[in-house]
Amino acid sequence: MKKIFNFSAGPSMLPKTVLIKVKNELFNWNNTNVSIMEISHRNKKFLNLIETMKQDLRDLLYIPKNYNIMFLQGGARTQFSSIPINLINKISETADYIDSGYWGKYAAYEAKKYCIVNLINVIYKEKLKKSVFPMKSWKISKNSKYVHYCPNETIDGIAINETPNFTDKLIIGDFSSTLLSKPIDINKFGIIYASSQKNIGTSGMTVFIFRNDLIFNNNKNIPSCLNYRMLYKYNSLFNTPPIFNWYVSSLVLKWIKSKGGLLKFNEINQKKSKLIYKAIDKSNFYYNNIDNLNRSDMNVIFYLPNKKLNNLFLKLSQSYGLLFLKGHRVAGGIRASLYNAMPISGVKKLIKFMKYFEKRYG
What we know:
Number of strands: 15
Number of helices: 9
CATH topology of the largest domain: Aspartate Aminotransferase, domain 2
Number of domains: 2
Distance between the termini: 30 Å
Strand order of the largest sheet: 2-12-11-10-7-3-4
Strand content: 15-25%
């Protein structure tokens, strides 16, 4: 059987050791004689798993004691609505949304239903390359309730590597595609959230980290399953959670810790992305349209001379054991997602195929 590498943007590749452990425990989790998919979320052993997950997250991200953690159902899209519902008191209030790509813009679209959105475009083009304006030039509103941004746009392949320093503002970060890939200064944020299907586990959960002095709305009209006060009160167990997802995520957290933590993964992830970008830049066949300072380490986007070659590349790469390289329908092209579970050997195999394809069809 050929070696397969999954470059999907999500659900992403999972560590092999985690998959093996899931397989071995599937019929008898933690000596309960039942599958993890059958266990009650009120079971003492499962409650212990939740607390262990929280502690592992605190250890990996160095989350201060004045921050709380929730595990919420659904993906990050749910938070696009939940955040303004829980933070905005009336529709005449303003929130700043940073437009750095598809997801930043989509979060703003949802927020417009609940408040006035100041949409701040931070992307500019120079010599056909997209760049991000420095944070000091962002036109933040004086009276906005918060500033929301996405530091890594999975579709556009754009990364914002600056750490926010708006001392008088509540900063909210959608870290769906970068959480656990590198260290973060949690103290710079009021809220950090991330859907789980990138570097955390399988789809169906969102990690939600928030400073405990934040005051969420006490509006009785907020749906209970979106009400942060209610969800925190019930320790994320207001209703039956995606048990299997939480279990897999707990194993991935242990795996990250066993491999050296976030400093180590940041080093490896940068090495992986630099290898591919180097191959692209040395080529007269492939091209990337993002400035070097804003290239994503997680999602490498590149293009071929025409769509016909693009389709052939995808067809042949799949037969070569390189899966799910098709770019998002909005951006097109090729997208190689390099989350934590992707080994350097997978990146090298992709580069080898890229060189072969260029030589034959370039």
